Amino acid sequence: MKRNIVLFTGALALMICLSVQAFANGLYWESTRAGREGKGNGVSKSYYMPRMYKIVMEDNKGAVIIRLDKEEMLMLNHKKKTYQEMTFNEMETMMKGVSSQMQEVAKQMEKELAAMPAEQRKMVEQMMGKNLIKKQEEKTVVKAGETKNISNYACTKYILKEGDKDVATIWATKDIDDFKAMQQDMEEFGKRMATMMPGNLEGQMDRSIALVDGFPVRTEMTDGTTMTVTNAEKRSIPVSEFEAPSGYKKEKLPVGTKGGN
């Protein structure tokens, strides 16, 4: 369950970059993700209606639904034909527990590092990565001005920064009009996620994306991961698309969340 949440927040941080207007008939789009070597990992499918969002994962084994209107999230397992339902309050309880554990580990690591000789401490920091033990800096977005044609859209380059360090490159277009409504919906969810787990990259990215002027067509992360929109179209989407499918069995939440006790 926790793995699903972590994977989804990572996906959300990228999929937020596809924010578009809440058309009366809704919106459907597809995107591809590629790793450092450029190898593709399949196509993910997304559906949007005002206050409702759904992403079908690349392997088509599952999906995640966000219902801002109900303040809940559904995690679907298509292979097992099951689903889990979690309110934002229950998610907050779980995420704060994870955050608290991580902070305790970081404090213990800092104590142990402080007691080490300088050379040994430097070696451990290099092996583990300083980002695991340092406080994350504020995320900002800077317009770079460079332009490029991506997926037949004229895009402008933006840089997402953490302090002075580049975190991601975002290519956004103004060829797709009126995208603000969905952007605002997903920014709202991003802010809620950020309060659940303060300092996390995904939550700060969600808030920073609001500063991008246009429809972000591609996001390039510094770890080599790239997400690119390949197709987007207005589509009439029934509310049933944002609910658990008929015949799916509801599973209990993990122990530690309000609904899992």
From TrEMBL:
InterPro entries: DUF4412 (IPR025524). It comes from Candidatus Brocadia sapporoensis. The keyword Signal applies. Keywords: Signal. This is DUF4412 domain-containing protein. Pfam families: DUF4412 (PF14371). Residues 90-248 form the DUF4412 domain. The lineage of its organism: Bacteria, Pseudomonadati, Planctomycetota, Candidatus Brocadiia, Candidatus Brocadiales. It comes from the Bacteria.
